[in-house]
Amino acid sequence: MLFDACYESKREILFAPLACNFSDKPFSKVSKLPKQKPPSDDGLTRYPSLSSPQGILRGLDLFGTFVFSFSGCVTAGEAGMDLLGCMIVGTITAVGGGTLRDVFLGNMPVFWMTEVEYLWICLLTVLGTFFTYSSLAEKGFTTNSELMNWADALGVGAFCVIGAQNGIRSKLSKTVCIVCGMFTATFGGVIRDVLCQRPPRILHSKAEIYASTALAGAGTYIGLRSLKVSPIGRICGGFFVALGLRVAAWKMDLKLPTWAESPQNQIDLDRLESITNEKRMQEAKSLPK
Questions:
Q1: Between these two residues, 89 and 4, which has the higher pLDDT value?
Q2: Could you give the CA distance from residue 271 to residue 191 in angstroms, rounded to a whole number?
Q3: How far apart are alpha carbons 42 and 181 in whole angstroms?
Q4: For residues 161 and 177, what is the distance between their CA atoms, to the nearest angstrom?
Q5: What tens digit of pLDDT does each residue of 161-178 get?
């Protein structure tokens, strides 16, 4: 009996560590990761994902950031800016609209200060564009190419929907939410044009409609939401309306009406006429007598 008791006590001492319950605390806390909250109907996932419309929209948002920073860098380079200037203008083109939106809505800090991947996308895109654009342009890959027009349209479609979502989450009126969509999609380009001393394209009829397509996309999203359409339905509706209008705008040269008798239009006509006359005189001089 005494031997059996001693044997049992030694066995407990030796094998007691192996008999502990590893599912108890604190090991269970280490093995369990915190679950991420699902995105709201008018929100985005933290990172791109194909499992939800909000995740797809996040991916399009990052893609649009790349495209806009590319075009902003090219515009700054053509205006004679150095590498730092191209970095600043390229970054502002991509995130400037969303930054203004967050400032107006009182969302501080602004989105790219907490989601730093947006800033890195801008900086890396500008670096690559600054040193490779000349060779890309020789191959036909310019900001006016068909591919870049499509890419830009995708960015406008995503940005206008995301801007409208931000207005909704701030519990603003429907009209203001639509304006937030337009700000997000276009005001980075407005700041770019001002810094590069160009007429802002969304304010003049020299280029096809741009801000109007963002307004239409954001308005579609808000309208479908009012009709209780599902998140995927209203995201797709707002996105594809803006995308379709942008494609139609550059293919059919759609422009908003202006004053035909405005002094600026008359100046443009006079310049066009003088350029035409100069070309005719040069052609006449080059003809054999």
A1: 89
A2: 27
A3: 13
A4: 10
A5: 999 999 999 999 999 999
